[in-house]
Amino acid sequence: GMIPESLDDALSMLKKRGDLARVKAIYLVPYFDNPAGSTLTKERAGEIHEIANRYSEHNKIYVVTDEAYRLLDFNQTAQPSLWAGDRNLNHTIVVGTFSKSYSPGIRVGWGILPPELITPVNDVKGNIDFGSPNINQYIMYEVLRNGWLQEHVSKLCDHYQQKQNAMLDALDEHMSTIDHCSWWNPGGGMYVWLTLPEIIDSAFDKPLYQATKQAGAMYVPGHYCFPKQGEPVQHNTIRLSFGQQTPAKIAEGVKCLATAVNSVLSIA
């Protein structure tokens, strides 16, 4: 997740340039994030809250915590919301969606906002989408009123965990013998972040992607997930998703990817 020291450095630089007043919010995806599947530690969350408060010199700097993947916790660790570190909502905006935890087509989100933002956010939202679909909201109202969400989430976590395990097992089987390949068990969400040997470029127009596609699989090159400024882009990275395919197809896809990696390495 976000490194507080790097955030502090960035805000300090903006302050020296006279641009601190332009900063309105710090955006986080603290649980099983897209693309890396990483989760922000409680200690880092507390530091980020402190930094936001300290640099709120010209205007309040909010911490926007996007909890889209928080419920997809396969180990049921009951990770507290970042809201827990700011119960009065002095600097915290919490947003989420039922599209990941209930149904992709439901397209209903929710938010917990500081009181001063409720009216302006509603006004802007109304101008953008002219209102969320009523039928979808009524569906989620009934789901929540009857206590059906958690039961469904438990089934969904079991389902996704099987897919995640299929991907991790296939990586262990087919890629653990390739030097300088690494990944970790995210324990939730939908993604695994794969780092390849530095001599491999995962871009669409490079040999690895072409070989992987020819073998029958596809992936998202990791360089698309890096900002234009900040940390150097790592062209040897890949975002793998286990959200859609069956465990068997996932295992087959990882095998195709490993075959392509070995093929590219053999001629590098």
Multimeric state: single chain
Low-confidence stretches: none
Number of helical segments with 4 or more residues: 8
Describe the sheet with the most strands: 4 strands, mixed
Mean pLDDT: 94
| Number of individual domains | 2
- What is the level-2 CATH architecture name of the largest domain? 3-Layer(aba) Sandwich
Helix fraction bin: 40-55%
Structural class: alpha/beta
CATH superfamily of the largest domain: Type I PLP-dependent aspartate aminotransferase-like (Major domain)
- CATH class (first level) name of the largest domain: Alpha Beta
**What topology, given as strand order, has the largest sheet?**
1-2-3-4
- Strand percentage lies at 5-15%
The helix/strand order is HEHEEHEHHHEHEEH
List keywords for this structure.
single chain; 268 residues; alpha/beta; Aspartate Aminotransferase, domain 2; Aspartate Aminotransferase, domain 1; four-stranded mixed sheet; three-stranded antiparallel sheet; 8 helices; 7 strands; 43% helix; 12% strand; globular
Structure description:
Strands 1-2-3-4 form a 4-stranded mixed β-sheet. The protein has a 3-stranded antiparallel β-sheet with strand order 5-7-6, with helices on one face. The model has no long low-confidence stretch (mean pLDDT 94). By secondary structure, the protein is of the alpha/beta class. α7 crosses α8. It has 2 domains: 143 residues, Aspartate Aminotransferase, domain 2 (3-Layer(aba) Sandwich); 112 residues, Aspartate Aminotransferase, domain 1. β1, α2 and β2 form a beta-alpha-beta unit. The two termini are 33 Å apart. It is globular, with a radius of gyration of 21 Å.
